UniProtKB/TrEMBL annotation:
Signal sequence, start to end: none
PPR repeat coordinates: 120-154, 155-190
Protein name: Pentatricopeptide repeat-containing protein, mitochondrial
Keywords, ordered alphabetically: Repeat
Taxon lineage: Eukaryota, Viridiplantae, Streptophyta, Embryophyta, Tracheophyta
Organism name: Sesamum latifolium
């Protein structure tokens, strides 16, 4: 354990939050939202629709210069048979997120689900992060419901993103309560990043 991590645990203990945890994950019952106004059912750009489709397009993510390039590549990816791996789709979503086009990334995520493209825990973590960055942590929790519906287990990154999102919208008590629940119910093993996130959020309260 690093000195920084130890210091974090001591500080949390003094606040009455004992650092007891386990690596085991279990169900975390939360409602799944069916109505998501940030999801888009279609892309309204016209420029990428006119580009020729190649049955074997080169998945060169470094060549993406704007969101139009990303949308064009996504359109090709969902039409390729066999489809690219979930790793490739996650790379594309990450590129869009780095552009800070969070609603677009969420629209791609929704389209992936509807078209049967591969989705994994990393994909859903990306979606949760986008919602939190848009100050819609409530929809982030709805994505958490999708985790369990698909039989997936959220990881420490999932919960850390949600805790950070709750702090961002000013719900300090809710963030602290979630962290305590993670510890008491042994839902995940907090890492140093989570300890720092909680301490930073509490210090700004």
């Amino acid at each position: 354990m690093s000195q920084k991590s130890a210091a974090c645990r001591i500080a949390l203990f003094r606040r009455g939050i004992p650092p007891k945890f386990s690596g085991n994950l279990c169900a975390f019952p939360l409602p799944l939202s069916n109505n998501d106004p940030l999801f888009s059912s279609a892309f309204h750009s016209s420029s990428h629709k006119d580009r020729p489709f190649s049955s074997k397009p080169r998945l060169n993510f470094s060549s993406i210069n704007d969101v139009e390039d990303a949308l064009c590549l996504f359109r090709d990816m969902v039409r390729i048979r066999p489809q690219p791996s979930v790793v490739q789709f996650n790379k594309l979503l990450t590129v869009v997120v780095k552009m800070k086009r969070y609603p677009v990334a969420l629209s791609l995520f929704d389209k992936m689900r509807r078209l049967g493209a591969p989705v994994d825990v990393i994909t859903m973590n990306i979606a949760i992060n986008c919602y939190c960055l848009l100050s819609r942590v409530d929809f982030g929790f709805a994505i958490l419901g999708i985790f369990f519906k698909r039989g997936c287990e959220p990881d420490v990154f999932t919960f850390n993103t949600l805790i950070r999102g709750i702090f961002l919208v000013g719900e300090v008590a809710e963030a602290e309560n979630l962290f305590k629940k993670l510890l008491s119910d042994k839902l995940c093993e907090p890492n140093e990043v989570m300890f720092l996130t909680v301490l930073s959020g509490l210090s700004k309260a």
